[in-house]
Write a structure and sequence with these properties.
The chain is an alpha/beta fold. The chain has 13 helices and 14 strands. Helix 2 runs parallel beside helix 13. The longest helix has 29 residues. It starts with 9 loop residues before the first helix and ends in a 9-residue tail after the last helix.
């Protein structure tokens, strides 16, 4: 991945152009502008930089906690703000301050755990500046596999029959044990803010403010049951992420509420905002922004809610949309009128 020139620092632009009436672009990360958890193309980076130079406030809007946002992306200084953990935390990245917070307390987090635990999912939890993952499972936040990639892997794991299936099952189990150990090592070395645990319950019990929880299930049908159980409880927001994974925040907390908190902080009218996304946790943004842009690789229900559908992430779709919008406003990508 090549780098964007270091002279693009939107901070000065935002300080000069932040008053009411400025526009806001909210970007989901995984499979919208970031591929496989870390790669963001030069073309997308240039488009984000030019949008910033044109006076648009660019913000992350991710299911990830801030500690799991790729550090190379943050180092670009393209994003002065971040809506994280599906709206439970909103940050001013220029000074690290928290603009808005809406976490679950211990009792509520444990209620979510006990409601779904009979289905035996693998849990994760995000608390302040730390992320915790149970040893027995994984998440798109670790593998970078979302959308079509995740669905293809799940289908691949489900194929086969007879003795071949048994042999593949043994091989998969062996590979799983190895990969868990590898993940544990990589997390400890590369990101000291993450921890792998055998059981998430002690983590929840000693925490008074849990930003978000996640659960990965063995198959799609079991995931369906988990969604139904939590929806019936009525105290949670549940975002379906692909075939086997869900994200849980307290009732009323979504990317949309985080985005609205940021708009209020900046004095920006919601009609002057645009959100970009691909997955279930992006759907609430379609209800509160002036326009919602889905990438072509988005889930079908996300595209159905979109104001526009741009090309896929592999075709730099978000950059294409921004370039076209800047051109329509009479501003070229080199900054001239």
């Amino acid at each position: 991945m090549s780098s964007l020139t270091d002279d693009i620092n939107p901070r000065v632009e935002f300080e000069a152009r932040q008053p009411q009436g400025a526009g806001l672009y909210l970007f989901d990360l995984d499979d919208t502008i970031v591929y496989r958890g870390s790669h963001i193309s030069d073309r997308v980076l240039r488009a984000l930089g030019r949008a910033s130079e044109a006076g648009i406030v660019c913000s992350i809007a991710s299911g990830r906690p801030l500690c799991l946002v790729n550090k190379k992306i943050l180092a670009r200084k393209i994003f002065p703000y971040a809506v994280c953990a599906n709206g439970s935390k909103v940050y001013d990245l220029r000074d690290g301050s928290i603009i808005y917070g809406a976490s679950m307390d211990t009792a509520l987090a444990l209620a979510a755990f006990h409601a779904v635990e009979p289905l035996r999912p693998a849990w994760n939890a995000f608390i302040g500046d730390r992320a915790y993952f149970e040893w027995k499972g994984t998440s798109y936040m670790v593998t970078g596999l979302v959308g079509r990639d995740a669905r293809q892997r799940a289908r691949s794991e489900a194929t086969g029959d007879g003795g071949a299936t048994a042999r593949r099952s043994v091989a998969r189990k062996a590979l799983s044990v190895f990969s868990r150990g590898a993940r544990f090592f990589v997390r400890k070395v590369s990101n000291p803010s993450t921890s792998q645990v055998f059981d998430i319950r002690p983590v929840l019990r000693r925490s008074s403010a849990i930003d978000k929880m996640g659960a990965s299930f063995k198959d799609s049908a079991t995931c369906d049951k988990g969604v139904e159980i939590l929806a019936a409880d009525g105290r949670f927001e549940v975002a379906r992420m692909g075939m086997r994974e869900i994200e849980i925040t307290r009732k009323g907390v979504t990317k949309a509420t985080g985005a609205l908190a940021l708009m209020d902080h900046l004095g920006i009218d919601p009609k002057d905002s645009v959100a970009f996304g691909d997955g279930g946790n992006d759907l609430p943004l379609a209800e509160v922004t002036g326009s919602f842009v889905a990438v072509a690789n988005a889930d079908a229900d996300v595209k159905a809610k979109a104001t526009y559908v741009c090309p896929s992430i592999k075709e730099d779709g978000v950059a294409v949309w921004i370039e076209d919008r800047l051109a329509a406003s009479g501003r070229t990508m080199d900054g001239t009128e």
